[in-house]
Amino acid sequence: MMQRLLAVCLGLALLANSPSAWAQGLLISSDHSHRLPRPWPLPTPDPLVMTCQVKELSVQARLKDQVAQVQVSQTFLNTGSRQIEAQFVFPLPYDGAVDKLTLMIDGQEYPAQLLSKEDARARYEAIVRSSKDPALLEWMGHGLFQTSVFPVPAGQTRTVTLHYNQLLRKDGGATDFLFPLSTARYTSKPLEKLEIQVSIDSTVSIRNVYSPSHGITIERPDEDHAVVKFSGTNVVPSADFRLFFDVNPEKLGTSLLSYRPSDQEDGFFLLLTTPQVPKQNEQLPKTVLFVVDKSGSMQGEKIEQAKSAIKFVLNNLKEGDTFNIVAYDTAIETFKPELERFNDETRKQAVGYVSGLYAGGGTNIHDALKTALDQIKDKSRPTFVLFLTDGLPTVGERSEPKIALAARAANKVGARILNFGVGYDVNSRLLDRLAREHSGASEYVKPDEDIEVHVSKVYSKISSPVLSDVNVQFEFDKVATEDGKPINRVYPSGKFDLFAGEQVVLIGRYKHSGLAKVVVTGQVGEKTERFDFPAQFAVVSSNSTNGFVEKLWAMRRIGEIIDDLDLNGKNEELVKELVSLSTKHGILTPYTSFLADETSRPTLARDSDAFHSNSISSGRRLQDLEQVEGRGGVAQRASKQMFLNQSSLAAPTSGSYGGSGKPAGPAPAAGSATYIDSKSGEQIVTSSVRSAGNQTAYKRGKRVVTPDTADLDVEKDKAMIITIQRYSKEYFDLVEQNSVDDNQIISQQLADEELLVNFRGQAYLIQ
After folding, report:
1. pLDDT of 94 strictly over 50
2. From CA 685, how far away is CA 676, in angstroms rounded?
3. Exposed end of the chain (fewer CB within 10 Å): N or C?
4. Separation of alpha carbons 418 and 443, rounded Å
């Protein structure tokens, strides 16, 4: 078989009966003298080396019930100095669930030949051996289409377009669509443009639309249609694109995904809940109080932005709502002595009152909150306090614990307090304490950001409550009381409200498996409504398809741990758990960023000296939480809020942080980890911590290790380790036995590295 060099890769998803059954498009050259391009940034290649870059990638998919119609266009640029005689190869899953596959190259249709599974594996091995790069290993075992050879002149582009239909799988009531982007990592430069658009058409009302991998935007023109979009420029894809959606004609739609890697430990679950958009006359009346800081530090643009934010809220209240405005500096003043019923006349009066506000004086947070909360008497309606401040308490009670205690005593109806900290001079811990104790949230507005943008975003989310005081319970068959709670460590914890257009992502752990009933109850005024849904909790997961649920739970749990340490002080057990979760999942925080240091040992052994040392380092860094103001104090709380509210594995945007939010250096390579510096608030990127699928690896000198092999000494523990030479028969035999996730970690191994990894309880050193 002709030896060929992989020049550029691009992925196409084929889920069928197995979501791990991928299909990828590959551009290969008949010249086999050069290695694969690796994720950018890299040193500038020799001008004689033949390389290709994926300039643009566009994915257009239409999901009609359980069938996907997909069109993929990618533009390849020959960045070398010579013409490439290239072939396009397209792997397929075992069951061949692709229908009507067509392939166009610059508008000309090319025939494709289907290879058998055996021939396809031989081709994969040949490419890996000739290129001396393991990048293709995660696609071993798949069928393969290939085209005839076509030229790609030096410096020119070729656009390849694929059309295919595929049958999607269902899991936990949700339809699952996957488009692997991992192949686009192996390009000499980042993708200049990446666009994904997925249109969902359904004969039944669409409820949950969720991506665990990317920060998508969702447009819902009506109940039966949704359009999902993602776009990026100058990007190296860090994860495959994954999308779930479900349908339900009832008022509430719920789906549950579970993942249990072993029956020896609790499993993980993710629950999606989205309500039907109510008609105008069915929307719940609510109470909104705006508590706005007008102290001297708010002078100028800040007070004008705050006034615009209040007017936005006033202009979007609805008939039946009640409201008031509490403005504070040294003294406290209110728009009205008590809550006012909203109508056009009261709106005009309130807008006039806001226009007359001016900044000056001190900051009396204690009395402002107490005044607002004392006005709320009605427990039957959802109530929201929008609390805005740009400074520390300087007048009246200044003690953080006492201010929080007074707010807790005054809040007799369970009002949600939603905080907006403006600038770096706020007591960020006080805001987070208020958010936690009053079922709210904190937003941090950087000095160069517009207050109105943050307030309008939050208010738009809460403007139409559908159910208040929502509670989720799980009923299992044949679970005795003495067996303990079947569900534990659920985030967000406690009761919450459901809003029109909002999707709640509930994540937790489960002890008992099998069939269960999810029971959702909530209040509509003084009436209690109940909904129940069937659910299936996996006994043991046969693959890592839903492995993202475990990592997502770990991110929420890390946020909860940091919040607990922040508000309640140091706790050795929590510090150890923080280090363990961060190490296992490669989730770096300001307090575990030392794991990116190539001299540290990322071990999971609870009794090891290295783990103890890591816990000490983490505990020392957690002292940074004593800083409650300034760039670092705000950045730490913004980072913590990101973990607490994380709903996908997508990297947060720079706007999420209290610091500059700018990454250090150029665009990160795929799989790189990020964390927030606790002093500067900047986002730091490190390639010494790598994520591949559901696994994490750490680069230590020339060796890459996984957490469960970090304690091994290659010389002293030789008897425990099987050494394998890359590209040998034993190497490919191991790859054949591995799962896709296992091979993803091998596929990241670079030429000058050794990989020490554990597969199925056996340690391997791949040299």
Report:
1. no
2. 9
3. N
4. 8
Cβ–Cβ < 8 Å for 61, 143: no
- The rounded distance, in Å, linking the Cα atoms of 98 and 23 is 10
Q: Look at residues 411, 439, 463 and tell me which one is the last residue of a structural domain.
A: 463
Q: Please give the Cα distance from 299 to 296 (Å, whole number).
A: 6
Output DSSP code: residue 471. E
- Residues 399-436 have pLDDT tens digits of 999 999 999 999 999 999 999 999 999 999 999 999 99
Residue 482 has pLDDT above 80, yes or no: no
Long-range (24+ apart) CB contacts under 8 A made by 618-622 are 618/575, 618/578, 618/579, 618/591, 618/592, 618/594, 619/570, 619/572, 619/575, 621/590, 621/591, 621/592, 621/593, 621/594, 621/678, 622/565, 622/570, 622/575, 622/591
Q: Are 151 and 231 in the same domain?
A: yes
The answer to whether residue 298 sits within a structural domain is: yes
Cα–Cα distance between 740 and 346 in angstroms, integer?
62
**Top-confidence range, 30-39, 471-480, 535-544, 664-673:** 535-544
User: Cα separation of 570 and 94, whole Å?
Assistant: 53
**Assigned domain for 255 exists:** no
Residue 650 corresponds to which amino acid? A
At 472, which CATH number?
A: 2.60.40
Question: What one-letter code names the amino acid at 445?
Answer: V
**pTM exceeding the 0.85 threshold for the entire prediction:** yes
Cα distances (angstroms) measured from residue 546 to each of 56, 171, 242, 732: 29, 9, 11, 26
Same domain, 624 and 762: yes
Please name the helix (run of DSSP H) or strand (run of DSSP E) that holds residue 124, with its range, or none: helix 117-131
Neighbours of 97 (CB within 10 A): 20
Domain that holds residue 305: 285-463
Comparing C-alpha atoms, which of 593, 275, 696 is closest to residue 461? Answer: 275
Per residue in 250-289, pLDDT (tens digit) is: 888 899 999 999 999 999 999 999 888 766 666 789 999 9
- Residue 490 has phi, psi (to 5 degrees) of -95, 135
